[in-house]
Amino acid sequence: MNESFLRGATWGFPGAPVGHIETHAAHVFLVANRAFKIKKDVLLPYLDFSNLEKRRAVIAREFEVNRAYAPQIYVGVSEVEGEPVLVMNRFAGRDVLAAVVDRGHMSDDLAVALAEMAARAHALAPRAKTPGAGIMDRLGAQLSKAFTASPDIFRAAETLEFHALYEDALQRLTPLLNRRTEQGLVRRCHGDMHCANIVVIDGKPVLFDAIEFSEKIATIDVLYDLAFLLMDLLRHERRRAANLVLNHYLNRRREAEDLSGLAALPLFLATRAGVRALVTADLIHELPVGRSLHERGAALDYFRASIAYLKPPRASLICIGGLSGTGKSTLAADLAPDVGSAGGAIHIRSDVERKVLAGVAETERLAPEHYSKTSSLQVYDAMFARAEKALAAGCSVVLDAVFADLAERNAAAELARRQGAGFHGLWLEAPPAVLKTRVAARSRDASDATPAIVDRQLGYALGAMYWSRIDAAGTVGEAVAEIRQKLRLPPGGRA
Hints:
With 495 residues, this protein is α/β, with parallel strands linked by helices. Helices cover 47% and strands 15% of the residues. It contains 17 helices and 16 strands. It has a 5-stranded antiparallel beta sheet with strand order 1-2-3-7-6, with helices on one face. The protein has a 5-stranded parallel beta sheet with strand order 13-14-12-15-16, sandwiched between helices.
């Protein structure tokens, strides 16, 4: 490295201190309010920066790719001391999502914003024609080979289990993965969408540092791109955030995603965890044994998580019913992260489905005709259709609706039976005064319920109630604890 790069004057800031970050393939110099990145003269199995023209081309491509995601960060391309330089606006390390999560500042609003960020990125990403199954086959082969080559870290028996599970999943999912290519869901993506490559600026998450050196590595299924973020949040033990990201992403991408792709999510999560295990293992081999204990533990954690992702549990359908104000949606959101496979259950809410059918925003109030018997039948049909798609993909579902009609409750139970899923029906109850107080206090919510609507609902003839009755008159925590006990879910939530 040229020593002049460590002087502020080289970057146009005489006398300013220069911070220096080194990675396996680049140097980044932090000066005043700027960050300057140059590529190392290196040749690695997956990248080639071994001459000036190649470095100049990859710097230009890095600017082009990332400018689309973060125009507020990426300023331009320059040359300093004969080297091509990527010029960026500097941001505080504490604002990187990984640091935000570590500080425990992962709010629901931020999770929703992450879903919107990912959905926007995938809507803009150029389509590719690469068969999806071929992409995952290549990645799986690379992982199996790498794990086999490191028996000092990964036990042979577990490596064989990983390979067998991966091959079985790939064979089963090949038609789906290739169909997703035909549907335009394999795209030139960010490729590296994890918590350390997202920064929160003015309260909004912004993607940066996309894969620039390989179109092959960045050309992937959009759900595989999202899976890196989900896996990383799960690794940070932020199950609620991961579940909110997944649910809101799928809601934003309804025209493109019909939920059948959820069948591939365990494979995508396993591959992401496996890649992290491999990268960490590579670092272990560069360190003295005494200094690699932490990395060795992390590599094994990722590796074993990869195997666990490939063994998802049987899907379940959990229905949460009750009159308006019983807290159905709040309870459903608390339960969904811990139901089913990694990433949690798909939370389907009748209030949201009604707004989707009407073609309006979730918080826009609807006229009374949208609550007619005919309209309600359409809402339940849409809700059940969406739930069936998710269950058929092996993903658990939490259905959140009034379910005042016995026929609706029977239809839900039949849906679970038809898909071979577990079934739990929960009926929430609270005194009328509590229901009216709660709905009156709502603001900016998908529900249009009012105290007058509660009065009308109190006159419903519910018919036989064979669902488990839950006392929802107290706090959310009390009701959640009762439900978790009934469903044998772990205590807690909100992680």
